[in-house]
Amino acid sequence: MEQRTLGRTGRTVSVIGLGTWQLGADWGDVSVEDATAVLAASVEAGVTFFDTADVYGDGRSESVIGAFLGERPGHGITVATKMGRRAEQLRENYVLANFREWTDRSRRNLGVDTLDLVQLHCPPSDVVTSDEVYDALDTLVADGAMAAYGLSVETSEQALAAIARPHVATIQIILNAFRLKPLDAVLGAAADAGVGIIARVPLASGLLTGKYTAATRFAADDHRNYNRDGSHFDVGETFSGVDWETGLAAASEFAALAEKAAPGVPVAEVALAWVAQQPGVSSVIPGARSPKQAVANAAAGSLPPLGEEFLSGVRALYDARLRADIHPRW
Q1: pLDDT digits (tens, 9 = 90+) for 116-164
Q2: Which tens digit of pLDDT belongs to each residue from 255-274?
Q3: Which of 29, 123, 157, 289 could disulfide-link 127, Cβ–Cβ 3.0 to 4.6 Å?
Q4: Does position 325 have pLDDT exceeding 70, yes or no?
Q5: How many angstroms separate the CA atoms of 244 and 276, rounded?
Q6: What pLDDT score was predicted for residue 330?
Q7: Which pairs count as long-range contacts for 123-131, CB under 8 Å and 24+ apart, including other chains?
Q8: Overall pTM surpassing 0.85 (yes/no)
Q9: Residue 322: which pLDDT band, with cuts at 50, 70 and 90?
Q10: d(CA 293, CA 167)
Q11: pLDDT score of 327 more than 60
Q12: Angle at 169 between CA 164 and CA 173, to 5 degrees
């Protein structure tokens, strides 16, 4: 697995990491045994970067990771967690006292004294631009509660504001073949500043696997069922904000492009490789609910370049099917 520098952290991480939202049971039920098997399969396949958050299963995801790594001294895995969603999304809640409480909880869950990387978890824009917030984060680094910090953001505008801050190590942002704005607006600026890019929702919540049809149904406790309208959190986190029927049609076209570019390679691997091969991306963090999925995701990190014809085809598909209807603001 190719290793890349994770921005200003100075750490090297696998180009394909593992997102662990699903291990918190927010994508339907996942047992601790199954979650541990996914972690083990990922590490065996060369993954050295786990991404989690304090609210995934109310700390369950962090705790599963902490128990797994606690049995593997010298594991060499970098763990990024997130904080900020345990309180109402108001600027006044993003203060040092709360940061201490949240990071202390995450440190207990993960079984570490110093957190590798802490990201503010999709905060409001007035948090992203607040001097006091960054002062508080700098204090926690100085105190040894965290080694580095970054932001997980919803918009390119938020990403650019955070990149301008001198101690922001990473930006996590939605990036996939159905969400192209960061390619033009964010990745170059991040690279110039030495800020790492963590690409989330790389498969558009599964749309880009090519496995879904109009008959596909999701469990009641799966966000792909209950958050399609963005009523629980930002709609971009669910199918990248793409309407279900539109997404299915676009996914079918993407699958045809993928088969032409990489015959016989699963569509999901091609979709992940497309993200990983974008200049400036440090790590891509697909989720996995089974060891088989984890191994298949990791395989995307070794696919050869997909070629200019495929890249142009993805752009044309986006412009024709998605840009105007799904992302009208740009």
Answers
A1: 999 999 999 999 999 999 999 999 999 999 999 999 999 999 999 999 9
A2: 999 999 999 999 999 999 99
A3: 123
A4: no
A5: 25
A6: 42
A7: 123/84, 123/89, 123/94, 123/151, 124/89, 124/90, 124/91, 125/155, 125/157, 125/158, 125/161, 126/91, 127/84, 127/91, 127/94, 128/153, 128/158, 128/161, 128/162, 129/161, 130/91, 130/94
A8: yes
A9: confident
A10: 35
A11: no
A12: 80
Of the candidates 276, 319, 305, the one whose C-alpha atom is nearest the C-alpha of residue 187 is 276
Structure tokens at 219: 């469990």
> Residue 284's beta-bridge partner residues?
16, 199
The identity of residue 89, as a single letter, is: Q
What's the residue count for the chain?
Answer: 330
Question: Which DSSP symbol is given to 303?
Answer: P
What's the burial of 223, exposed, middle or buried (CB within 10 Å: 0-12/13-18/19+)?
buried
Angle among Cα 5, 8, 14 to the nearest 5 degrees reads: 25
Summarised one tens digit per residue, pLDDT across range 202-256 is 999 889 998 888 888 887 877 787 877 777 777 777 777 788 888 899 999 999 9
Angstrom distance (rounded) from CA 294 to CA 243: 27
Cα–Cα distance list, 108 to 17, 111, 152, 257, 286 (Å): 23, 5, 22, 46, 25
Question: Considering only CA atoms, which of 71, 81, 77 is closest in space to residue 42?
Answer: 77
Average pLDDT over the chain, rounded to an integer = 93
Between CA 227 and CA 238 the distance in angstroms is 7
Residue type, 309: E
Identify whether the C-beta of residue 89 lies closer than 8 Å to the C-beta of residue 124: yes
111 Cβ neighbours under 8 A, 6+ residues apart: 66, 67, 69, 70
**Which run of H or of E encompasses 195?**
none
Burial class (CB in 10 A: 0-12, 13-18, 19+), 73: exposed
Q: Are 282 and 170 in contact (CB under 8 A)?
A: yes
Return the percentage of the chain with pLDDT > 70, whole number.
96
Buried b (16+ CB within 10 A) or exposed e, 152-176: bbbbbebbbbbbebeebbbbbbbbb
* Token pair belonging to 73: 């001294």
